[in-house]
Amino acid sequence: MAAVLLLAGGLVVGLLPGVAARPAYAHAYLLESSPVDGQVLASPPAEVRLRFDEAVSLSGRSIQLLDPTGKELAIGAAGFADGKADTARASLPRDLAEGTYVVSWRVTSVDSHVVSGAFSFSVGHPSAMAADVEQDADRVVPVVAAIGRGVAYLGVALVLGGGMFVAALWPAGRGDRRGRRVVWSGFAALAAGTAVVLLVQGPYADGRPLTGVFDPGLLGATLSTRLGYALLARLVLVAVLGVVFLIAIRPSAAADAETDAPEPGGVGRRIALPVVAVGAVAMTLTWTLADHAQSGTQTWLAVPATSLHLLAMSLWLGGLVTLALCVLAPAGKRDPGLLSLEPALPRFSRLALLCFAVIAVTGLYLSWRQVGTWGALGATGFGRLLLVKLAIVLGVLALASGSRRFVQRRDRARRTPQDPAAAVRRLRRSVAGEVVLGIVVVSVTAVLVDTAPARTSYAPPVDTTVPFPAAVNASGPYGGPYGGLRGGSIQVKIEPARPGGNTADIYLTGRDGRLVAVPEISGALESRDRGVPALPVTVTAAEPGHYVAGSMSIPYPGEWALRLDIRVSDFDETRVRVPFTAH
Fold it and tell me: What Rg, from alpha-carbon coordinates, does the chain have?
């Protein structure tokens, strides 16, 4: 059992760096800020405001201000502006000197994930250099948090699926030490993984190193959040379900285990069954009420769909692990291991088929909800992880179909195969393969839930072409050496076309399709839907007719226009606006 937990933890560690090393694109994302990123102000602003697309939670370090040398300045405590949970504010010093300042922000979104970013503004004149901001002071913290989530996922599968297998599908298992060990290992993993997430969330949300787990103030802040309530409820449910499992496998309940005869069941067991059903649903809600299901569209449908998805996965994987450990480690030398599980095999096969149907239906809906478009599958970390998970699930289905055919053949024959040892070996290999792939799926899921959904992180690149303005007259600016621009076009490509740093490639193409060079191009970024001053954009020549704006910063999503002032002679200039949408 320890090897299974180590495998899950190792897979999470292996998968996480590729995701954690990326910038923290939002689960909640910044809609606008005041001052605007890159804005040059004549006097110091009185405060900084950040408006997000959804409600966020703040910590003591949610908003920080760095001066041009990188020194952190004392500012007012972060709070909500005008009582709005989606708008954060902090007052700034009145005596800011001239230069460029960096605002670093870090908040927790509705789905309990931490998102962060930074932007700059200048007072008077920009500084030659701006301070660099390191968003994550300790990269170990998100890795430990992901491992905790992975272990908790595996634990809930062993508790719900393993408990179902031992207590209901395999009556003889109530008196079998192997099955009980699997379930109790699940309780231990679920409690340990939950405790790790609870302790690490404080340093994670506040940008502190791992030693912050010992800070009672950070733990108290976590316990006051939606995630803290969910984790506490999960720990209580672990204790309750542990007591119920003890009742379900008590010696009196296993008295008829050797004959697999129906048991009359005492009052304790009759009470235990509804408690388990309610507890299982409540256990899944401790995830779905504090994760991706709580943000975005159709939360009324996403929460029950995600809960069903998690419950079906738990019943299948937990039961499969219990089956694998009991088949692969038979109780005695006389018993090939299959005979003692004979009543449970067809029962689990039918349950697994139902679980796969639920997983497929809910998984299809949740994938559409979190991805949105086909292009986002290959262009985002979330989409690529989802494709990996899908490929592994298809492998599990291929192995599961072979196991199910084996069970159906035994049911039809109603006798032991001619070579039971060979049959058991084939079944062992198939079930062992399913278990390994199932643990990989859990590990991918643990990383997936901490990755920004593709629907919010995907921004299709901008590629637009506008005609060059018509010439006023033949002797105007389109005559002479730049006459080739008459009837030509301007192509602009912007990547990634989302808030933050972007690169714009600009191509001036003549009527004959050839690139045309001009003396100079200057640019500015204009907001089309907000009263924001134009932000200067530096444009340099990459080659004749091809110009690049390599550090164009887009402050927030929305409708924008890239204004290009194209000088076609020593005295003449024409202005072109290229509209685009930043996602």
Answer: 30
